[in-house]
Every structure is written in C-alpha cells, then in structure tokens.
Amino acid sequence: LGEIENAKTHVKIAGQLPDRSDMQTVRAVEVHLINCTESRKIGDWSSVLRESNGAIMAGADSAPQFFASKSEALLKLDRVDEADGVLQAAPKIVTDTSVRFFGIVGNSYLLLVQAQVDMALGRCESAVANAEKAARMDLYNHEVTALLRKARAVADARKTGNALFKACKYFEACTAYGEGLDHDPMNAILLCNRAACRSKLGQWEKAVEDCNAALSIRPNYYKALLRRADSNAKLERWEESIWDYEAVRREVPGDIEVARALFDAQVALKRSRGEEISNLKFGGEVEVVSSNDQFREAITAPGLAVVHFSSRSSERCSQISPFVDHLCKRYPSVNFLEVGVQENLYLAKSESVSCVPTFKFYKNGSKIKEIIAPSQQALENSVKHY
C-alpha cells in the first residue's frame, strides 16, 4: 500500500528480527517515495514516472498514490490515454477506506489526478465531480481549488460551444471553445471542437493548426485525424489528407463515409499528377483478372489492392471466396482482385504463387504482405491493418 511508516511499525511490533529482504523492500519503496515527491515538486515528470514505476516494481503494487503519480506524470508528458489506462488498472479502494489508510490529503490527490485525466479526455462532468470531492476533503489546497475552477470553466465552455455548434452558430461556438482553451490550452477535446467550427467557417489552415495541437497531445485521436484530413482535402493537400484518412480507417474500418473520402482523395491525387483515373472504382465486386496488363494496372492504382490467387478445384478457395466478397463490401476503398492460377499460369509464376489460396497485398505496385490459406479473422485483420 506504500505506507512505509506503518510497515516499519508493524515490523517492530512483531517482536522478532525482521527478514532482511523485507527491510530491503521497505527501504527501496521509501527511497522511490522520497524521490517521487521531490521530483513532483520541481515538475520533473520523467523522474516522477520512473520513481513511481520503481516503487510499484519494488513491492508497492497496491498503492493507489503511486498509480496516481504515475498517471499524473504520463498526463504531464502528453500521454493522456496511457494515463487513463494506469488509473483504470489501479487498485480500487472505496472512499472511506481510502481516507482511513491514506488520509485526507492523500485521498484528495487521488481525486485530483482523476479529475485532470477526466478533463483531458473530455469527461467534463466527471472532472468537476471529482474536483469537487477533492475540494471538500482538502479545503485549503490551492492546487485543488485551481483545478476545480478550471474544470468548471472548461465544462461550461464545452457545453456552451456544443449548444452553439448544434444551432449552426459556428463563429460563436468557436469563441466559446476558445474561452475554454484560455483556461486549459492543452485540452485536445476543445481544440478538436474548435477545429470543427473553423472547418465549417472555411478556415481550413486554422482548423489544421488546431488538429495538429490536439494530436500533439493525443496522437491517436481519430476525430482530430479525420478533421485534419477533411481540412487538408479542402486545401488540396492530397498526400497529407490520404495519410490521415488511412489512419482513421484503421480505427473505424467499417465507416463507409471515411472510405469514400479516402477514395476521393486518392483519385484527386492521381488526377493532380496527370495519371489515368477512368478505371478507378469505389467498392463493388471482386475484380476478376484475366491478363497481366489488367493485373499491373490494378495493383498500381491508388490505395490498397488485395489479390486472391485461387483455383476452381480448391475447396479452401471455394470456402473463403464468399468471405472475400463480404470484405469487398465492408471495405469499399480497398481494391479486391481474384487471379485464377490455371487461367493465368504466367502471372502466378511471376508472382511466385506456389499454393492456393494465397493472398498478396500491394500498395503502389509493391507487395507489402503475403498470407497463405489464412483464416477469415487473419485475412480481415490484415486488411484492417493496411
């Protein structure tokens, strides 16, 4: 539990010589606790993270305060999702018990960190509730009081901004979100919401700037990726737009609108380069390849091409073909092709196909993956990944 003094006291009460390894453990945790506290005072969050991990590894593996300090350090280092994960994995102790073990100040700190993480992830109501609990426990803690003011201001700004956005008052909503950011400049949710307003107002460059700021805090924040992709598309920055759309597709592979936007950006990029686009299609059916030229043209088209090398006499091919048809509809921005090896012996040989079913993945004419006789799950996972 990280209660060093209590641990020492109970060793003495036991009335016998303590085990040497136990005392080494107590001392190790104590050193980590001291270092963690000192590092937090000076804002050395990398050291706080290291010392918190050290204390947990040394034996304080059920100490909420070390999980809280680890979470706070990750939050300060802009690793928000990891910070939330640490709190989710931390031992859960009911409030009354927590206060009895760790005191008012210790319990207030736990709530303080939870409120900060909640606010960073847009859980404004929860952030306010936890900050209020912390303030009731520790009335004269200036850090808690300041966080409570910030949480309330951010929650109010987000609520106001959301209502204005819903009413199509984008300029006013943008201002409201900005007021919230005055209190919490690194709030990824507010930055992303303001980007949506700026996008609606045609302020594409500013929308990209807000998304960049949000993604510097939460690199995998798919809403920010999507809004940046949309804004870059409006600015005709097709390569940047495609990169973000592909990242979003990995997060929400079944989203048809995102798939369509990705396809449109890929077509626009090809058009801007003066390349042929008349043969490009969005979704539909598996394309049956009947010539080497058709194959080369298909795998060099924008985006991902998945080629199923099959044989009519193969039972495995017959079993997986309906699933490939399903994937074709589920992932319309992916170009699915089928090559019959008997009908295209030269092509199968040139692609080093030795057995069926074989699936090869291509981007821009280059093979990026090959899987032989995959399960349905393995095949779909690969499509999602690329």
Q: Would you write up a description of this structure?
A:
By secondary structure, the chain is α/β, with parallel strands linked by helices. Helices cover 67% and strands 8% of the residues. The chain has 18 helices and five strands. The protein has a five-stranded mixed β-sheet, with helices on both faces. A hairpin with a 2-residue loop joins strand 4 and strand 5. Helix 5 packs antiparallel against helix 6, helix 6 crosses helix 7 and helix 12 packs antiparallel against helix 13. The longest helix has 26 residues. The relative contact order is 0.05.
SSE arrangement, N to C: HHHHHHHHHHHHHHEHEHEHEEH
Q: What is the CA–CA distance across the termini?
A: 44 Å
Beta strand %: 5-15%
Strand pairing plus helix content: what structural class?
alpha/beta
Q: Total number of helical segments? A: 18
Shape: flat
The number of E-state strands comes to 5
Biggest β-sheet: count, sense, barrel? 5 strands, mixed
Strand order of the largest sheet: 1-3-2-4-5
Radius of gyration: 28 Å
Keywords: Repeat, TPR repeat
Domain Thioredoxin: 289-384
Protein name: Thioredoxin domain-containing protein
InterPro entries: Thioredoxin-like_sf, Thioredoxin_domain, TPR-like_helical_dom_sf, TPR_rpt, TTL1-4
